[in-house]
Amino acid sequence: EKGGYDHFMLKEIFEQPQTIFDSLRGRLDAEHQHITLSGVDKIKEKLIHANRVIIVACGTSWHAGLLAEYVIEELCRINVEVEYASEFRYRNPIITDKDVIIAVSQSGETADTLVAIENAKKQGATIFGLVNVVGSSIARMSDAGAYTHAGPEIGVASTKAFTAQLALLYLIALKVAYEKQTIDQTLFNKLLGDLAKVPQYVQDILEEQDAAIQEIARKYADANDFLYLGRGFNFPIALEGALKLKEVSYIHAEGYPAAEMKHGPIALVDENLPVVFVATKDSYHEKIVSNIQEIKARKGQVIAVVSQGDNVVAGLADDVMVVPQIHEIIAPILSVVPLQLLSYYIGINRGLDVDKPRNLAKSVTVE
Ligand code: F6R
Questions:
Q1: For 116-139, how does the pLDDT look when each residue is reduced to its tens digit (9 = 90+)?
Q2: Residues with Cβ < 8 Å from 330, sequence gap 6 or more?
Q3: Measured between alpha carbons, how far is residue 140 from residues 109, 136, 147 in Å?
Q4: What's the whole-model pTM score?
Q5: Are 247 and 219 in contact (CB under 8 A)?
Q6: 10 Å Cβ neighbour count for 219?
Q7: Catalytic residue list contains 44
Q8: Distance 158 CA to ligand 1 centre (A)
Q9: Which residue out of 55, 60, 133, 249 has the highest number of ligand 1 atoms within 8 Å of its CB and is therefore the one to mutate?
Q10: Which residues line ligand 1 (CB under 6 A)?
Q11: What ipTM does this complex have?
């Protein structure tokens, strides 16, 4: 049932070209520049006139939500808040009937997320569920929604559910932007076209980078700490990279916005600290290059996710994981894939049960 793979986690990482494709299928029509999402249509007016979009989630799903904040604000010009469900439910948040809550959950059963939307619903908010498991509690509680079509995710560390969430969140943002007319046709077409290329590009990364990433994993498997840095659209990916490493390797890892390192974490940097930069070509590129130089000046070891053809970062970094170049808004869905593989192989090198890390449950149905 692992389909020839040693672990579910690896199988699920390699399924991503298909699961992303399945999540876009019948929804994204790049050729005719059209997005079909009946769940969005159902609450279209609410979304277009929303006072705020509040994204509620936990863990990896929260990271997907954080990226969605950047994307929805950029494309739709709607205020977005991203909330840890556990915090949101226990404070007394100000919610009105002009708020749309997007609950992001693979399992659809996460207790904190479920109660958070239950409370928000009582206060009049409209609930949109972005869920993988069909018929789950969060799906049933929602006023409208869209299923990610990632298929069953068995590995406790979430991989394919995350990229499916991103694919759907991009579609939602693009559709709302189009309806609200906050995006011009050229950018809309470009992003649709790039999104359609993602399954093939993920396939290319898996085929072309797997061997190199195994080597990198061997080199760094004994490290005690990792720092993950990224800016802008890549910041949520730095957080997700760090979480994945913690879960499956038990190595302490922290994700930070790259510019924040000066405000504390840079004190950790010495020749024993691997620093992973999510450094694909984007509008912040020069800034991240100078952040990399600052780490190198302090003898930190730099592992970078770079865009194909980027000799500047490749020249500075000790090790690179290469991804195809694509629009900066879409790039994070590619950047996360090498980080998933890196975590997996480091966990394997350390002889751990990557599919069932200690202390973790696949779905957290108690608080
Ligand atoms: C991380 C992981 C967890 C889940 C979190 C939310 O790899 O699996 O952090 O993302 O427990 O779960 P769902 O998405 O099922 O609500």
A1: 999 999 999 999 999 999 999 999
A2: 170, 191, 194, 195, 198
A3: 10, 6, 12
A4: 0.97
A5: no
A6: 16
A7: no
A8: 6
A9: 60
A10: 58-61, 105-107, 110, 113, 157-158, 243, 247, 363-364
A11: 0.98
